[in-house]
Design goal:
The protein is of the alpha/beta class. The protein has a single domain, classed as Acetylglutamate kinase-like (Carbamate kinase). It is about 40% helix and about 20% strand. The chain is built from 9 helices and 11 strands. The strands form 2 sheets. The chain has a 9-stranded mixed β-sheet, with helices on both faces. It has a two-stranded antiparallel sheet with strand order 7-8. Helix 6 runs parallel beside helix 8. The longest helix has 25 residues. The chain is globular and about 50 Å long.
Length: about 240
């Protein structure tokens, strides 16, 4: 059997991914499926850290557009990520996967504080690390958190699980003729306004040479396929940068 192409990865999961078709809250079936996929790649010897969003419970930007203070709305979103992190931890442990939740916001009763060297040590010991609480600061997205953590823990790649199979020139859910990109450069995401992730996250990955794979997280087995080097989704980073 071929060896995985990546040794250490950061998987970014949106809150919406955890909600499944219900669109809000947490779907136990979806979380269980994701936990099974993560266990599968962990058994290959891949060190995996997960960054979870909170959009299935609360979106800070949406709150601020309705008149709420932006910082307050963003802190509420960070708390939502902790709920999702605990749900994923519970599902992983039901699959006999050793995990640690680490939060950028102190909540010592339910999560460890985020300490870079401790996170790396957990990964080296075979534990799945789930990052909650964003960066601990308002105005930063979960995508930026994932890019930052990927740089900090020296990840080989950032995996961004979405609802579509890669990056398209328009929304494929509304345009059946949308063109899918197989590969892109970092600046293509910014210059073409493709809105896969915010410019801060893209710039962090570009500055640190971290490739990004955007793929459909809803298809069982896709995480393993990406890590085994199969052509899944869209690769951002260009040839020679992976």
């Amino acid at each position: 059997m071929d060896a995985p192409k990546f040794r250490r990865v950061v998987l970014k999961l949106s809150g919406e991914a955890l909600a499944g078709d219900q669109g809000y809250g947490i779907s136990p079936e979806v979380v269980d499926s994701l936990a099974g996929q993560i266990r599968e790649v962990r058994e290959l010897g891949v060190e995996i850290a997960v960054v979870v969003g909170g959009g299935n419970i609360w979106r800070g930007v949406a709150g601020s557009t309705r008149g709420m203070d932006r910082a307050t709305a963003d802190y509420m979103g960070m708390l939502a990520t902790a709920i999702n992190a605990l749900a994923l931890q519970d599902a992983l442990e039901k699959h006999s996967v050793d995990t640690r939740v680490m939060s950028a916001i102190e909540m010592k009763e339910v999560a460890e504080p985020y300490i870079r060297r401790r996170a790396m040590r957990h990964l080296e010991k075979g534990r799945v690390v789930i990052f909650a609480g964003g960066t601990g600061n308002p105005y930063f997205s979960a995508d930026t958190t994932a890019a930052l953590r990927a740089a900090e823990i020296e990840a080989d790649v950032m995996l961004k699980g979405t609802k579509v199979d890669g990056v398209f020139d328009s929304d494929p859910e509304h345009n059946p003729n949308a063109k899918k990109f197989e590969e892109l450069q970092y600046l293509d995401l910014i210059n073409q306004g493709l809105r896969v992730m915010d410019s801060t996250a893209t710039s962090l990955c570009m500055d640190n040479g971290i490739p990004i794979v955007v793929f459909d997280i809803r298809i069982p087995g896709n995480i393993k396929r990406v890590l085994m080097g199969e052509k899944v989704g869209t690769l951002v980073g260009g040839k020679g940068q992976c």
